[in-house]
Specification:
- By secondary structure, the chain is mostly beta strands.
- The protein has one helix at 57-65; strands at residues 2-8, 11-19, 24-29, 32-37.
Length: 74
């Protein structure tokens, strides 16, 4: 279950959402339980997407431990 706090007309509301399936959810708002089905969803980007570059510490350590080939040895 996930809990969201949203503001509607300057009033904070707590919304609990429980996934029942891939597209069905049970939502609790103001003490009422409602079963809902997701018909469609789209990611609407208001700004450029953020794509962070992540490198694991293990990959960094492994990469640093591998010596570069010595062109004089060939």
């Amino acid at each position: 279950m996930r809990r969201y706090t949203i503001t509607v007309n300057d009033t904070a509301k707590v919304v609990d959402v429980e996934a029942l399936g891939a597209d069905t959810f049970r939502v609790q708002l103001d003490g009422r339980l409602v079963d809902v089905r997701l018909e469609d969803h789209r990611d609407l980007a208001w700004e450029a997407p953020i794509t962070p570059a992540i490198q694991s510490r293990r990959a960094s350590a492994t990469h640093a431990a591998v010596p570069s080939p010595d062109p004089a040895a060939a």
